[in-house]
Amino acid sequence: MSVAGVVIDARGRAPLIQRRDNGKWEPPGGVLEREETIPAALQREVLEETGIKIAPPATLTGVYKNMTGLIVSLVFRCEVADGAPTTGDETRALRWATREEVSELADEAYAIRVLDAMDGASPPAIRAHDGVKLV
């Protein structure tokens, strides 16, 4: 299971990170560690990849299953508590993106996660993808 956090700024933009391992643009997030709770993993991943500390609680905006990789990802809309945007060990670049930029930069399977969070999907969206495209 993985988590991702979408922080929306005052201008309606969300940070996307460019991963060092594959160069892809995605919302900050990652796989939960064995003994980690979902909120703790969300806090850790967003902080590690963006330098932003998020305020609890975060709002669940979607559940996404990678049909190829068999990974379920929970995506949350988050608010900033503290910190300044920066890159980390896993992050090549960080960019605040508009809706249009999200769709241009990220593969469809990741862009939809950010767009659902920007929309504040309620109830949360439930979607499946093949790692790149929605199915």
UniProtKB/TrEMBL annotation:
Transmembrane segments: none annotated. GO terms for molecular function: hydrolase activity. InterPro entries: Nudix_hydrolase, NUDIX_hydrolase-like_dom_sf, NUDIX_hydrolase_CS, NUDIX_hydrolase_dom. Keywords: Hydrolase. CDD domains: NUDIX_Hydrolase. Residues 1-119 form the Nudix hydrolase domain. SUPFAM superfamilies: Nudix (SSF55811). The keyword Hydrolase applies. Belongs to the Nudix hydrolase family. This is NUDIX hydrolase. It comes from Streptomyces andamanensis.
